[in-house]
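Researcher: Here's a chain I'd like modeled. Treat it as a single chain, no partners, no ligands.
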Amino acid sequence: MLADPRWPDGAVALFTRAREQGIPTVLDGDVADADIFERLLPLTDHAIFSEPGLSGFAGPDIGAALEKAASFGSRMVAVTRGSKGVAWREDGVVHDLPAPSVRAIDTTAAGDVFHGAYAFAIGAHFEIRDSMAFASAAAAFKCTRAGGRAAIPTLDELRSS
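Model: Modeled as a single isolated chain. Structure tokens:
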């Protein structure tokens, strides 16, 4: 189940119900007030922040910020860093995955594609590292084409690339 902090009450209700049903929760950690993240993170299994979102919540030092976010009980916390890739903290260890090298034409919606692909991969029971690689590939592929929604790659396109 994927939600962002724009409608906190809705996300809390959704994540609470998902937890009751054993459905993994994925938080798109965009920029929001700290109190919103403090409400959502205890209900989040996989928190994936943008750089501005994580920095605004927990400060600019990525390692310390991931540690602070993880202190709320999420199984995994991450930060997407565009062309610099993604870093995540799992079981107390920080991992780093470089972004695929592509000729970016348009980054519109790349973060949304990353979050959606990650949620899809977790729902398909991929391991976290494999989910990160899948989401990174999907977001990078999207960046090779102009547009937002129209440029989102299909699963068949990702398989053949």
